[in-house]
Design brief:
Keywords: Metal-binding, Zinc, Zinc-finger. This protein is α+β, with helices and mostly antiparallel strands and about 150 residues long. It contains three helices and eight strands; from the N terminus they run E-E-E-H-E-H-E-E-H-E-E. The protein is about 15% helix and about 15% strand. Bound molecules: zinc ion (ZN) (3 copies).
Length: about 150
């Protein structure tokens, strides 16, 4: 699957609690989603692409979850089968899980370059449009890649 555009499968993200060095903000009692350490990574991982579920669907019988796109492609080859246990399955959109995942706090994918942005997964695409730590081709056409904030 490495050859495919990863953006179309699951989310390849770093949650804020996954980076030991980060200061995880105080968790509040009433906001259980924020208490992200409690979240079981298996619960939000696509059984096919092994990334975080994008447009999650769940199999009725066995409870396995997949990205809508991942299971769609799998079913082109293996109609109606679960790739984990080969049962006959029907899948339905898991709206609750989708909402839960989009509410999880992630770090900017460019945090290794120094971006300190953290927010809900749903805000990621918006942030990346303005993130100063995206590498862009140098305007002087020198062939170098530079951070957008330095352009
Ligand atoms: Zn997937
Ligand atoms: Zn299954
Ligand atoms: Zn950023």
């Amino acid at each position: 699957m490495a050859a495919c555009k990863p953006e179309e499968y699951g989310f390849d993200v770093t949650f804020i609690w996954e980076d030991e060095k980060s200061e995880v903000s105080e968790t509040t009692e009433e906001d259980s989603v924020q208490n992200a350490k409690e979240i079981n990574r298996d619960d939000i991982t696509c059984a096919i692409c092994l990334l975080v579920l994008r447009e999650p669907v769940q199999a009725v019988k066995c409870g396995h979850r997949f990205c809508e796109k991942c299971i769609g492609e799998f079913h082109l080859q293996n109609p109606g089968k679960c790739p984990k246990d080969w049962q006959e399955i029907q899948v339905f959109p898991d709206v609750g899980k989708k909402r839960e995942i989009l509410s999880l706090k992630i770090r900017c994918p460019n945090f290794v370059d120094g971006c300190t942005w953290q927010n809900e997964l749903r805000e990621k695409e918006v942030h990346l449009k303005t993130c100063g730590f995206v590498t862009v081709p140098c305007e002087l056409d020198c062939g170098e890649f530079v951070l957008r904030k330095n352009v």
